Amino acid sequence: MSAARRVVVIGGGLAGIAAALDCAAAGAEVTLLEVRRRLGGAAYSFDREGLEMDNGQHVFLRCCTAYRALLERLGSHHLVAVQPRLEIPVLKPGAPAFLLRRGSLPAPLHLAGALARYPHMTRAQRLGAARAALALMLLGRSARGRERERLDELSFGEWLARHGQGAEAVSALWDLIALPTLNLPAAQASLALGAFVFRTGLLASADAGDIGFHTGTLREIIGRPAERALLRAGVQVRLGWRAERLERTARGFQVHGRGGRGERADADSLSAEAVVVAIPHGRAARLLEPLLGDRARALELLGASPIVNLHVVYDRPVLGEPFAAGVGTPVQYLFDRSAAAGAPAGCQYLAVSLSGAEREMGMSVEELRERYLPAMRALLPRARQARVESFLVTREHAATFRAAPGVGALRPGPQTALRGLVLAGAWTATGWPATLEGAVISGHAAADCALRTLGIHHQPAALREGVAAESGALA
């Protein structure tokens, strides 16, 4: 087949799915290659002990307009739900539960009441946190050039300390948001990304931070619907196909790889005028190095930050809320996934999400059990009489790029030095941390670049869906 007006998308995660759908909608011939036997990338489900479990709890916010629009496109938006108003049940051992809830006033006053009543900080700490939040709203709004870069070179924790936020305040409040969104504690995270998260999700608009949940499994919401939507759009989807080498040709690129498994794997190649590389940055670096040299190797500098998830099935309900956050405990966030996973009647399946989990990555299952089951009993009184029916652990050692100071200068835009060779993924320069939203935005940006290479004119996703994306690290 001629390479003219042909796009190959390497990677079947959210970025690749969005890029492939955009390119196909604009009239390109699209083939999507995915090494796994499923779509969804880092957001997937698996079957274990009779339950359908998600690898992690990928929540989103009301302001994640690109991700929500993609779910509508896939026809699975009915399997997610957004809170009518931000509410985070906060649990602390030995203390009553507190509902961190936004009020009806406009931003940023919508959080003033919740902060004023927050019991896990002193009155002086609460006043200091309010002053720091106001300073965060103004931070870097008019910054340009080197001034913007300096914000990315500072740590969020360092900035908070300068604004009177001690370790106790950071642990009780700021890390409640920083850890799950940046996959690092504030002390280790980029100030630019930390400021973006708080301004975009909590301070700029009253309803932006309302939390969205997947009421079904990721397989039901992303994997299977994406395959159906791609096929309807005319995209050729090749699962179990590994891209091993890219070659530049007179008309574009040749993608060499193989499909199938083991000795049955058959070598194959595909030609295209444009190629979208939408795989994790470590794999992208290895695939692109023969063509881009040092520029590809530099992707390794983005580093990685792990996530560990604990899957605990109790013989009775122990958590009365659909989810909760923990302070003063190693338990970060808990989610009741009983209904989605198909837990046995009377049992409750809780997923415990541990972000920035470098310590936990080195712990055995038994060590995690010994550390976290007592912590769960201390946090949840009803767990003290309950029997643990199952305790499973899933680990994502390179779940996200490392959102540390200086990372903004390392994140590439979608267009590489070679015309038609395009990058996508939550690790590219979307301005967002490594989130569902960032992945989808990157896919739209990559499709725009690829279609320009083909000479196909279309309306960019940012205009079509109202997506407000900004290149580079935001300050």
Describe the structure.
It is a single chain. By secondary structure, this protein is of the alpha/beta class. The protein has helices spanning 14-25, 65-74, 112-117, 123-138, 146-153, 156-162, 167-182, 191-203, 218-232, 281-292, 294-297, 338-341, 358-361, 365-379, 436-454, 461-464, and strands at 6-10, 29-34, 45-48, 51-54, 60-61, 80-82, 87-91, 98-101, 211-214, 236-239, 241-248, 253-259, 266-272, 274-277, 305-314, 323-326, 333-336, 348-355, 388-400, 421-423. The protein has a 7-stranded mixed sheet. 50% of the residues are buried. Mean pLDDT is 93; it is low at 465-475.
List keywords for this structure.
single chain; 23% strand; Polyamine Oxidase, Chain A, domain 2; five-stranded parallel beta sheet; seven-stranded mixed beta sheet; 20 strands; alpha/beta; disordered C terminus; 475 residues; FAD/NAD(P)-binding domain
Task: Describe the secondary-structure layout.
Blueprint: E1 6-10, H1 14-25, E2 29-34, E3 45-48, E4 51-54, E5 60-61, H2 65-74, E6 80-82, E7 87-91, E8 98-101, H3 112-117, H4 123-138, H5 146-153, H6 156-162, H7 167-182, H8 191-203, E9 211-214, H9 218-232, E10 236-239, E11 241-248, E12 253-259, E13 266-272, E14 274-277, H10 281-292, H11 294-297, E15 305-314, E16 323-326, E17 333-336, H12 338-341, E18 348-355, H13 358-361, H14 365-379, E19 388-400, E20 421-423, H15 436-454, H16 461-464
